[in-house]
Design brief:
The chain is of the alpha/beta class. The protein is built from 8 helices and 8 strands.
Length: 220
């Protein structure tokens, strides 16, 4: 039996990908969380393309943090179904810290700091998830002091191909099919995915902490 005096295990719940670079990013984020709180047990589970699946690593003592950048169907339905009996915290995105992460990735890509920026997310059929991406796009535009908007590379509108962007901030967790689609838009500047930016580990812990308070959801 687990010692009830210990902190609940944290489960980083990621979507998963056939691209091995995705798992590398998730492992790097989990490693940052462990370094920040070495006393905390940190597990990783995947919705798809595991192992391990989320269901394989959870128990009722866990706090599950979705490593997803918007609160769409995966966060509202899929993860809770695999983590029954667990506390499922808010998704990592949206969050003001992600705007700083995007700004840093743009700087690394050679952004001039003046051009209009399009924040490219995976997209969703859930309008609430699209609103999450728009919120981060607005936060990034305000931080940079430029015009900005959001676009999608799968479901949702507007599609990135319709926008004709010059500068694109890749609002994705890791390299893979969606980031390849972002790159195919042909922008003069395209940032790398957010990846294992330190802000992500900070948000994971913020969501975990909020998830331990009964009736409270981590603030976006």
């Amino acid at each position: 039996m687990r010692d009830p005096r210990l902190s609940p295990p944290l489960v980083v719940a990621a979507h998963g990908s056939t691209d091995p670079r995705f798992a590398d990013v998730v492992e790097s984020i989990a490693a940052q969380v462990r370094r920040t709180r070495p006393e905390l047990e940190v597990r990783i589970g995947y919705l798809d393309h595991g192992p391990p699946s989320i269901a394989d690593v959870v128990d009722e003592s866990c706090v599950v943090v979705p490593l997803l950048l918007s609160a769409g169907y995966h966060v509202r339905v899929d993860i809770p179904e695999q983590a029954q009996g667990c506390v499922v915290a808010a998704a990592v995105g949206p969050d003001p810290l992600l705007a700083q992460a995007l700004a840093d990735r743009l700087d690394e890509a050679g952004y001039d700091g003046q051009s209009r920026v399009v924040v490219a997310g995976a997209g969703s059929s859930d309008e609430r998830a699209l609103d999450d991406v728009r919120a981060v796009a607005d936060a990034l535009a305000a931080q940079l002091g430029v015009a900005g908007t959001a676009a999608c590379v799968s479901a949702g509108s507007p599609h990135l191909s319709e926008v004709g962007p010059r500068v694109v901030a890749s609002y994705l967790v890791a390299p893979g099919m969606f980031h390849d689609a972002v790159g195919a838009a042909g922008a003069a500047v395209t940032s790398a995915p957010i990846g294992a930016h330190p802000a992500v580990a900070d948000i994971v812990l913020k969501r975990y902490d909020a998830g331990q308070v009964p009736g409270r959801t981590a603030p976006a």
